[in-house]
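Researcher: I'm preparing a figure for a lab meeting and need a structural model of a single chain. I don't have an experimental structure, so a prediction will have to do for now. The sequence is pasted below. Please return the structure as C-alpha cells so I can convert it later.
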Amino acid sequence: MSIKPIHNETDYDKALERVDELMELNPALGTPQSDELEVLALLIEKYEENAWAISEPDPIEAIKIRMEQMHLKQKDLVPYIGNKSKVSEVLNRKVGLSLTMIYNLAKGLHLPLEVLVQPSR
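Model: Understood. Here is the structure written out cell by cell.
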C-alpha cells in the first residue's frame, strides 16, 4: 500500500482509479485492501472539500435570491428592514444590516442567520 496526499487533479484522478480497482476486489473488512480503500476515501473526501468548497453566499445576494424565489419586490422588504429608502440603501450596499434587520429577514424570509451575519463582499 503506497498512499500519499492528494495535492492536485492528477493525484485525485489516480486516487479515484485506485478506489475503482479496490472496489472491484470487494475486500473483506480488516484486510490491507479494505484499509487502503478507507484511507483513500478519506483523502478524496478531504481533497474535494478543499478543492470544490462551496462558500456561503453574500448576505445581500442571498436576500436578492430569496426575493426572486418568493417573487418579492423591494417594497415587500419594508416590514423586515424599515422604510423604502432603507431597503434600497441595504440592497445597494450603502448601509449594512443591523441586528434587528438580520433577525427579521431570517425569520420572515427563512434565511439562515449564518448567511446574514457575514460581512458583505
